[in-house]
Amino acid sequence: MKDLFGQALLDYQNSISTGSMTTVEDIITSTSISDEDVLPLDYLFRSFKDMPKIEQKALQLAKGKILDVGCGAGSHSLYLQANGYDVRGIDISKGAIEVAIQRGVKEAVVMNVLDEINTFDTILLLMNGTGIFQELASVSKYLNHLKSLLNTQGQILIDSSDIKYMYEDEDGGFWFDANSNYYGELDYFLSYKNENEVPMKWLYLDFNTLFTACKSLGLNCELISEGEHFDYLARISN
Ligand SMILES: C[S@@+](CC[C@H](N)C(=O)[O-])C[C@H]1O[C@@H](n2cnc3c(N)ncnc32)[C@H](O)[C@@H]1O
User: Fold this and answer.
1) Is the pLDDT score of 182 beyond 90?
2) Strands, DSSP E only, in 80-210?
3) In the chain, is it the N or the C terminus that has fewer CB atoms within a 10 Å radius of its CB?
């Protein structure tokens, strides 16, 4: 991984602190089933009022000692910290963690969630949190690990989307092959300042598939709320 995502966050953070926007460009993303799209950097620095309703809901439900998995620039961690919570942010992006620290996240560590060993009352995975699982075959591995990090009465708050709509043609039919991979498994491409990141796998998981995976591991999975575009927030608990 070249960490272009982290580089972009660092450039943006620098531009805010120096007041010069000259070095800032947005991130360009695309996937195996969609064309290029712009990810505006300021979205990754959003405040509570600019967050989608399902993220606001997740922050309102958070309690106790909190782990923010894939914290990025630390927007969710900062809100929770400002509200008196003990929050730890982790991310595999070195640049993202540098930015989270610069923005004031007190505990932010470069770490893959699979290497986390501390336990928490709330584990947050937000902005398509199931993306981190990468593919359907890895969901149990990640959920089992997350389960091992939960304190008694702990909860995992995770959002995702059912992206079936992306395969819908004009006649209302769906063009994915039911015999091939799960339709939410995508290849994700990111570029920044004309440089391409190493392609990643990124998983969108519909609620029923997440529910079934949780059930098979003895976890409860509850639909908390639905967003405006096939997105949802789920709460997973022991
Ligand atoms: C879509 S971004 C979301 C960032 C942030 N949560 C937000 O909402 O602004 C996903 C983040 O997860 C991080 N990530 C991906 N896989 C990870 C893993 N296995 N462990 C920890 N972080 C991971 C990425 O580096 C990236 O910062």
Assistant:
1) yes
2) 86-91, 108-110, 120-125, 150-161, 185-192, 195-196, 200-203
3) N
Give nearest CA residue, ligand 1 atom 8: 127
Nearest atom of ligand 1 to the alpha carbon of 125: 6
- For the chain, how big is the Rg over CA atoms in Å? 18
User: Atom of ligand 1 at shortest distance to CA of 112?
Assistant: 20
- Tokens, residue 26: 């947005």
Spatial contact of 233 and 58, defined as CB atoms under 8 Å apart: yes
User: CA 210, CA 206: separation in Å to the nearest integer?
Assistant: 6
Measured CA to CA, the distance from residue 45 to residue 35 in angstroms comes to 24
Which segment of 100-104, 179-183, 191-195 scores lowest on mean pLDDT?
A: 179-183
Nearest residue CA, atom 20 of ligand 1? 112
* Alpha-carbon span 118 to 151, nearest angstrom: 10
pLDDT tens string 207-221: 999 999 999 999 999
